[in-house]
Amino acid sequence: MKCLQCENDARAICRFCGRAVCESHIQTKEFHAGYGKSKKSHALDRGSETAVTIADAVWCGKCNIEPQKTY
């Protein structure tokens, strides 16, 4: 697989769009997955975290990332 920007061998895939990037074109961006806290199932349950943040997810630097409301 070749890099989106320079045709060198790719080393990673963009987490946001799936494009391939080589080592010199890899960028990073914060990625969020999940929906926050889960609901309590009974009185003694404190709920649990169901969302995660990846601080340095691979990003190609070309795709546009637009937040969407999910409510």
Summarize the structure.
The chain is mainly β. Helices cover 0% and strands 27% of the residues. The model has no long low-confidence stretch (mean pLDDT 86).
Fold and architecture overview:
It is a single chain. This protein has no helices and four strands. The chain has 71 residues and is mainly beta. It has a two-stranded antiparallel sheet with strand order 1-2. Strands 3-4 form a two-stranded antiparallel sheet. β1 and β2 form a beta hairpin.
Q: What is the helix fraction of residues, given as a range?
A: under 10%
| Alpha carbon gyration radius | 17 Å
**What's the number of extended β-strand segments?**
4
Q: On the 0-100 scale, what is the average pLDDT?
A: 86
Separation of the first and last Cα atoms: 38 Å
Rough outline: elongated
The major sheet is characterized as: 2 strands, antiparallel
Q: Helical element count?
A: 0
Q: Give the low-pLDDT segments.
A: none
Percent of residues in beta strands: 25-35%
- What order do the SSEs take from the amino end to the carboxyl end, as H and E? EEEE
Biggest sheet: strands side by side, in what order?
1-2
Structural class: mainly beta
Per-chain topology:
Elements: E1 12-13, E2 20-21, E3 27-33, E4 52-59
Antiparallel strand pairs: 1-2, 3-4
